[in-house]
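REQUEST
  id: r-88c1
  op: predict_structure
  target: YqzM family protein
  payload:
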Amino acid sequence: MENVNVRDPREHVNEEPRDDLKDLMFGFGGMLGFMTVAYIIMVIVKYMIGD
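RESPONSE
  id: r-88c1
  status: 200
  body:
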């Protein structure tokens, strides 16, 4: 067994490099899009109920 310090970030090999900014933008955009669609649906439902 090798003597490796698993808590040392300098020894960590990044197996799957990711673009964090792109992930953030996709996540933010996806959530914004979902909330916009949910808002539009709720407005339509409100007017269909006839408040």
